[in-house]
């Protein structure tokens, strides 16, 4: 599937806001630390991806009841679900001038029940004309997502026969409904996941 940006204006994919708050000192400091051991933007992008994937546990895996939605909070509290982790990775990429946005998948249980929207990140390295999707959800038995800009290595390949699908749009900002579902949740166990794109 070819990710499709919602706008051709790349500055939209570098902007900061209340959710993708890469102007926050903690985000900037984390980005600077990750950049110290990298020699190129490609290496930095991989380091940022692996940091969010591995050093920030997924709340459903860890059982952490705290709910994060702002990138800086995800990095500070070291927890979040897929949406929140995508916000953090997007912020870290933008902090170093790498255009990045948000993508979504519709996933289900193995019998096609319990549909839920899953959050991903798409980036476009400067000097290229291709967007690549990454899944920073976090690995566990049965889930092996990795950094690859050529062949996708997502946590969950879609199963169309179960009603699953990839949404191609790369959004410059998180969907308002996604942010609201996180902000309204009293705990991670009570987050109301969207079932499809509005």
Q: How are the secondary structure elements laid out?
A:
Blueprint: E1 4-5, H1 25-36, H2 41-55, H3 59-62, H4 71-77, H5 82-95, E2 100-107, E3 116-123, E4 132-134, E5 165-171, H6 176-184
Parallel strand pairs: 1-5
Antiparallel strand pairs: 2-3, 2-5, 3-4
Helix pairs in contact: 1-4, 1-5, 2-5, 4-5
Radius of gyration: 15 Å
Classify the helix fraction into a percent range.
Answer: 25-40%
Low-confidence stretches: none
Number of strands: 5
First and last CA, distance? 20 Å
What fold name stands as the CATH topology?
Answer: C8orf32 fold
> What is the name of the CATH class?
Alpha Beta
CATH architecture: Roll
Class of secondary structure makeup: alpha+beta
Q: So what's the overall shape? A: globular
- What's the structural domain tally? 1
How does the major sheet shape up? Answer: 5 strands, mixed
Number of helices: 6
Across the major sheet, the strand order is: 1-5-2-3-4
**Average residue-wise pLDDT:** 96
Provide the β-strand percentage band: 5-15%
SSE topology string: EHHHHHEEEEH
Pfam families: Transglut_core (PF01841)
Organism: Actinacidiphila epipremni
InterPro entries: Papain-like_cys_pep_sf (IPR038765), Transglutaminase-like (IPR002931)
Domain Transglutaminase-like: 38-136
